[in-house]
Write a structure and sequence with these properties.
globular; 2 domains; 5 strands; 174 residues; two-stranded antiparallel ribbon; alpha+beta
């Protein structure tokens, strides 16, 4: 009997702490939608996507590159950089009377020779790159259009005057 009361007390205490933490979290942290959950992919699909890219596009790209110098295929930004950039973009967009609705991840390639942005690691010259570009809608935009146009509007358009973000960690080179 003592064990049942102990377990009941432990569970009740845990739930009380959990509720307090969650309530406190909601007051101090931004809330986000959950639409991302529909886009989560598992390890098997990630491996398939990687293998398809390596077998097709990556082979074609590397045919024109110097021997032993495969092009980049991974890019990394810290969470802090991404969160900071998103906060910056939202503020800049609001100043331009836009609402940010998304982010394009665009492909590019660094020039093969300098000069280039001095922040760029010189060993990245000639490699593929990705960069981020915010998309948004004018704050007063209406969506009374056909389904195809509406879908395009929902993604927004690139906003003139808001800087993109690049200079990620690029791999390769190693």
């Amino acid at each position: 009997m003592k064990i049942k009361f102990f377990l009941l007390g432990a569970v009740t205490s845990f739930l009380a702490v959990f509720v307090l933490v969650m309530c406190n979290n909601k007051n101090n942290e931004p809330t986000f939608g959950e639409s991302y959950k529909e886009k989560l992919i598992d390890k098997n699909l990630m491996a398939q996507l990687d293998a398809n890219y390596a077998e097709k596009n990556y082979q074609i790209i590397n045919k024109t590159r110097p021997e032993g110098s495969p092009d980049s295929k991974e890019y990394w930004y810290s969470i802090e950089e991404l969160e900071g950039y998103i906060a910056f973009v939202k503020k800049e967009a609001a100043n331009k009377d836009y609402k940010i609705v998304g982010m394009k991840i665009k492909m590019g390639q660094y020039p093969e020779k300098e000069p280039f942005d001095p922040r760029l690691n010189p060993k990245y010259l000639g490699y593929q790159a990705v960069y981020l570009v915010p998309t948004g809608l004018p704050s007063k935009a209406t969506h009374e259009k056909s389904a195809a146009v509406k879908d395009s509007l929902d993604r927004g358009r690139e906003i003139d005057g808001i800087a993109g973000m690049d200079l990620s960690w690029t791999n390769p080179p190693y």
